[in-house]
Amino acid sequence: MHPFRYNRAQTVEDALQSFGKEPNAAFLAGGTSQLDLMKEDVLRPGALIDIKRVPLSAIMATKDGGLRLGANASNTAVAYHEQVQKRYVGLAEAILAGASPQIRNMASTGGNLLQRTRCPYYRDTTQACNKREPGTGCAALEGINRVHAVFGANEKCIATHPSDMCVALAALNAVVQVQKPKGGTRSIPFADFHRLPGDEPQRDTVLEPGELITSVDLPAFTGRSHYLKVRERASYAYALVSVAIALEMDGDTIKAARIALGSVAHKPWMATDAAKELVGKKPDAALFRAAAEKAFEDAKPLQHNAYKIPLGKNTLVRALMETSGLMPLQGTAGTAFASSAGGVAGDDIEG
Ligand code: SF4
Q1: Concatenated DSSP letters for 232-280?
Q2: Strand duo 224-231 + 239-250: pairing
Q3: How far apart (Å, rounded) are the C-alpha atoms in residues 38 and 32?
Q4: How far apart are CA 350 and CA 337, in angstroms?
Q5: Domains and CATH numbers, the chain
Q6: Ligand 1, closest atom to CA 117?
Q7: Which helix H or strand E contains 165, and what residues bound it?
Q8: Which of 117, 119, 304 for a ligand 1 pocket mutation test, highest count of atoms within 8 Å of Cβ?
Q9: Average pLDDT per run of 10 along the chain, which is 351 residues long?
Q10: Alpha helices (H) in 1-68, listed in sequence order
Q11: Interstrand relation of 47-50 and 5-8 (parallel, antiparallel or unpaired)
């Protein structure tokens, strides 16, 4: 691990000022992912600005009937919050499908948004990786790419975003609240917060240097939401494919729908056109199958991940069936799936 300086901030202003004084600084919250990457020499910040004591842990109602999740609220606190359990079920399911109880106790809401990819080549400093070292190439392109993207990738990077929680937040139309380093705030719709690789695969989000996430706001929602995760074993593993659904009904007709797909792109992938196909119609297996076909019609498989397309379609159909009540919920722990593509040496699937 490279040497770094450590500053503990007590307030948002303190954190922003400390960040501005240090070259190559990074904020530290739960540290559940960041410290591992520092130990593995993947991340080398010159200074860590510890924000754990900054008072951003509250979960509170917003004026418009939504719920504000403080950036330092732990994943456990969010998943078991009464209002989340009652009104944002898909979010609770997504959080509880990820990691272990110990990690969820430490991991923060803001930190979850900033998780780095689980691409095994990103974490192996002997391999070329444009995300870790821009301009060095992408070892996954010609390597084993079974866990990589089928949407939005390019020759610079084919990695996927690893978070479960973010997929549910995208489906629930959350908004990320950010404090700017020189004063002022900005609000970023969740679907715009993470980036596709483009020419800067090293940038996962649209955050500018020194910007600090202060909360994630959930809008008022009275519909049904659900998260379904498919993984290689029944617990403590990253998704091969996941689906988050938010449905609002008018009697027995679908009034509004949002579908987000996980582990298929560099960001939670919104299946907007597929969701539109559902609006104004009654829940029906054939309708859901047509929406799933639509959702994956532009998917582009790599050498080893074509299985994600039928798997993703089937997961989406089942998630829609469960959300709409056409099929009973089969638990929130996710589904284990044995891929025929084999494992990746050194592949990290520990969730
Ligand atoms: Fe790096 Fe992205 Fe290529 Fe993985 S897919 S090796 S993260 S550039």
Answers
A1: SSSSS--EEEEEEEEEEEETTEEEEEEEEEESSSSSPEE-HHHHHTTTT
A2: antiparallel
A3: 11
A4: 15
A5: 1-54 (3.30.43.10), 224-335 (3.30.390.50)
A6: 7
A7: helix 165-171
A8: 119
A9: 96 97 96 95 97 98 98 98 98 96 97 97 98 98 98 98 98 98 97 98 97 98 97 91 98 98 98 98 98 98 98 98 92 46 30 32
A10: 12-21, 34-39
A11: parallel
> How far away, in angstroms, is 142 Cα from ligand 1 center?
11
Q: What angle do CA 192, 194, 199 make, to 5 degrees?
A: 105
Euclidean distance between CA atoms 266 and 269, whole angstroms: 8
Distance (Å, whole) CA 271 – CA 320: 13
220, 224, 230, 235 alpha-carbon torsion, rounded to 10°: 80
CA nearest to 215, candidates 47, 58, 85, 14: 58
| DSSP assignment string, 201-223 | TT--BSPPTT-EEEEEEEPP--S
- Cβ distance 184 to 334 under 8 Å? no
121, 124, 133, 348: which to mutate for ligand 1, most atoms within 8 A of CB?
Answer: 121
Could you identify the atom of ligand 1 that is nearest to the CA of residue 139?
Answer: 6
Residue written as token pair 């020419």: 199
Q: Distance between CA 133 and CA 202 in Å, rounded?
A: 8
Structure token digits, residue 337: 């799936």
Calpha distance 36→14 (Å, rounded)? 26
State which ligand 1 atom lies nearest to the alpha carbon of 153. 5
